[in-house]
Design a protein that fits this description.
The complex is a heterodimer of chains A (226) and B (407).
Chain A: E1 3-14, E2 17-29, E3 34-38, H1 45-52, E4 60-65, E5 68-69, H2 75-85, E6 86-89, H3 101-111, H4 116-129, H5 145-157, E7 163-167, H6 175-190, E8 194-199, H7 202-205, E9 210-215, E10 218-224
Parallel strand pairs in A: 3-8, 3-9, 6-7, 7-8
Antiparallel strand pairs in A: 1-2, 1-4, 4-5, 9-10
Helix pairs in contact in A: 3-4, 3-5, 4-5, 5-6
Chain B: H1 2-16, H2 18-55, E1 61-66, E2 69-72, E3 75-78, E4 85-86, H3 87-96, E5 100-106, E6 108-115, E7 118-127, H4 131-134, E8 139-142, H5 147-151, E9 156-159, H6 161-168, E10 177-180, E11 183-191, E12 195-196, E13 199-200, E14 205-208, H7 209-217, E15 221-222, E16 224-229, H8 235-250, E17 256-260, H9 261-304, H10 306-314, H11 319-360, H12 370-397, H13 400-405
Parallel strand pairs in B: 7-14, 9-11
Antiparallel strand pairs in B: 1-16, 1-17, 2-3, 4-15, 5-16, 6-7, 6-10, 8-11, 9-14, 10-11, 12-13
The chains are: A alpha/beta (226), B alpha+beta (407).
């Protein structure tokens, strides 16, 4: 089992009010699954995604990633997990604007302590995988939205993560570019990657093999598609 | 590896905001420049005093004067135990230690010089043939005083450049007779040009001390004497030996003032050190201002780059890695500013030294030692570290979720 959530709760204190973003969520995702996570805003899906991506820690419950309990890890250990196990893909791409495509892809390899030669080779390989071999020296401003998202995907792939975590990956793209990106996710899944898509677009969500709906901090439904 | 990367990122960041960087560097540069400039002037002043002292016979001299007056109940009154010095005393002092190079009398009297229609008012100094060697002051033409002049009480004199100019102009002077206080003296030599502490030695008229006593003062006394040690380290021992010898000769009651050049030099050095510390300390405050400027700019930088910090954290940057990234950025700023400041301070010191030299006609140096340069650079790095650590810690402690959400 790749992901095992047991009784995960997350409580924020906003002013004097307690916000229960997640209420005792149990969830298991296997290797090489292709999962969509849907829910309206405020449903807790962002919180769940942050916890799954080790950007945030749960208030209660345990989270095992590849069999390791990550729910009680400190900031340094979480950084290592994010670096080597998780590949993030964001709606707004989150590329460093002053760095070239290649330098952006190299970033997680730098934090992984890779030597210059190795990281250059692996970054080039990742960019070739997403079809951007000819755009490596371009900066994000010189690339189209679809190309930026490809760079972001290459960056997510760089360290060979166990989990690709995509948050509204087509949200900032026109529909035809969005479809291209979805085809890329399909292909990455075919190659053996575990993909988790967070979205509120049903068309996108239905491309996955499993659809989880979340509502009011609880899992409302969990169904296998196709 | 990550460390090198942090340096690269920091330098890149510094380069991106050129104007902002330039202004921050300027703040640091002014602070460091002020400190370096002041220290270099202070060091130059010290060197200047030591050099000029060297021309006066250096710190090796010990001056002995009879105490004519003494301080009693807050007023200066004649000293009842006053005992004038004679050439016999000088002989005694000469015998007091074998580490003495020479003992010279000090015997000055007002002198009115006349040659034909020209006249010149100065003072004549009675001295010994050793004078030239002790003060390292050579004759330019003719000869210096010799022992025979003293033994025979010859009325001869050696004159300075200014005396020659005033009395003779360009006319020949060697062997000519001048009138010194109405008595005829033959000019036998001309001293070379010389200045110390900006004072011209050219107005001097040197005569045999014995002639000065007999012809000019009319008594057998000398006003003071100056003993010169062979080595500076011997000065305290020699001072003691002279005091002992004089007490032995004149009884324990005899009171003489014995001052060594070494003690004067030590006092001067202490004064200059104090000056350097006080003024340098005041200038150091501007270094603090420079440091605060760095802190300010880093806080702005952290705020502006919150999202970038979030991205880096999401990709696996550890808190300590980000801490280093910003601390290195601060240190790179402060070190660059410091290096520019050293250059500016060097220029400032050099400029001030030239202005002083120009207006005072002294040869006043400005000195920046390698030790001082290294110290200031190390201090600059320390300032970067000190003022960079807080903004850096703020960056490293940012919550990745919040940081990613910021615009």
């Amino acid at each position: 089992m790749l992901i095992e959530l047991n009784g995960i709760s997350k409580v924020y204190v906003r002013g004097t009010e307690e916000v229960h973003a997640l209420r005792s969520v149990d969830l298991a995702i296997d290797d090489n699954e292709y999962v969509s996570l849907m829910g309206p805003s405020g449903s807790g899906k962002s919180t769940l995604m942050n916890i799954l991506g080790c950007l945030d820690s749960p208030t209660e419950g345990t989270y095992r990633l590849n069999g390791t309990d990550v729910s009680r890890m400190n900031a340094n250990e979480l950084a290592e997990v994010r670096n080597s196990r998780v590949g993030f893909i964001f709606q707004t791409f989150n590329l460093l604007p002053r760095a070239s495509a290649l330098q952006n892809v190299e970033l997680p390899l730098i934090y992984n302590g890779q030597r210059r030669k190795v990281r250059r080779a692996r970054a080039i390989q990742a960019l070739e995988r997403v079809g951007l071999a000819d755009r490596m020296t371009h900066r994000p401003a010189e690339l189209s939205g679809g190309q930026c998202q490809r760079v972001a995907i290459a960056r997510a792939l760089a360290n060979g993560p166990s989990l690709l975590l995509a948050d509204e990956p087509t949200g900032n793209l026109d529909s035809s570019t969005g479809e291209e990106i979805m085809l890329l996710f399909d292909a990455l899944h075919e190659e053996g990657n575990t993909v988790l898509l967070v979205t509120h677009d049903p068309v996108i969500a239905l491309q996955a093999e499993r659809l989880i709906r979340i509502h009011d901090g609880r899992i409302a439904s969990d169904e296998q598609l196709a | 590896m990550i460390f090198l990367e942090a340096i690269r990122i920091a330098l890149g960041q510094i380069w991106v905001n050129k104007l902002r960087t330039a202004l921050t560097l300027l703040g640091m540069m002014i602070g460091v420049g002020a400190v370096v400039g002041i220290v270099s002037i202070g060091e130059g002043m010290r060197q200047f005093v030591i050099d000029e002292f060297g021309k006066l016979g250096g710190a090796q001299f010990v001056m002995i004067t009879p105490q004519y007056m003494q301080l009693k109940d807050g007023r200066w009154v004649p000293n009842p135990r006053y005992k004038p010095l004679t050439m016999d005393d000088l002989a005694v002092v000469e015998q007091s230690s074998d580490r003495l190079a020479a003992v010279l009398p000090s015997m000055n009297s007002g002198a009115n010089l006349r040659y034909r229609k020209a006249s010149y008012q100065t003072s004549a100094a009675g001295t010994l043939p050793e004078f030239s060697e002790v003060y390292n002051w050579e004759v330019a033409e003719g000869r210096f005083l010799i022992n025979a002049d003293l033994e025979k009480l010859r009325r001869v004199c050696v004159i300075g450049q200014e005396v020659r100019e005033e009395l003779f102009g360009l006319a020949p002077f060697l062997g000519r007779e001048v009138k010194l206080n109405g008595q005829r003296f033959t000019v036998v030599g001309l001293m070379e040009d010389r200045q110390t502490f900006g004072e011209n030695w050219g107005d001097q008229v040197l005569v045999p001390v014995t002639t000065a006593q007999r012809r000019l003062a009319g008594n057998k006394y000398i006003q003071a004497m100056v003993a010169h040690a062979k080595e500076q380290e011997d000065v305290p021992d020699i001072t003691e030996a002279i005091e002992k010898a004089l007490k032995k000769r004149h009884g324990p009651e005899a009171s003489y003032q014995i001052v060594s050049g070494r003690s004067i030099l030590e006092q001067v050095e202490q004064t200059i050190l104090l000056l350097k510390l006080v003024v340098g300390g005041i200038a150091g405050i501007s270094l603090l201002v420079g440091g605060i400027g760095i802190m300010n700019i880093l806080l702005v930088s952290v705020a502006e780059r919150t999202r970038e910090i979030g991205i880096r954290k999401a990709l696996g940057a550890k808190p300590v890695t980000l801490l280093w990234q910003f601390v290195i950025e601060a240190m790179a700023l402060s070190l660059t500013g410091g290096a520019l400041g050293v250059a500016a301070g060097y220029g400032l010191g050099e400029g001030i030294a030239r202005v002083i030299s120009h207006y005072s006609e002294l040869n006043f140096p400005s000195i920046v030692s390698p030790e001082a340069t290294l110290f200031v650079l190390a201090l600059s790095i320390a300032i970067g570290l000190f003022f960079g650590i807080y903004p850096a810690a703020r960056a490293s402690r940012l919550d990745p979720v919040d940081a990613l959400r910021s615009e």
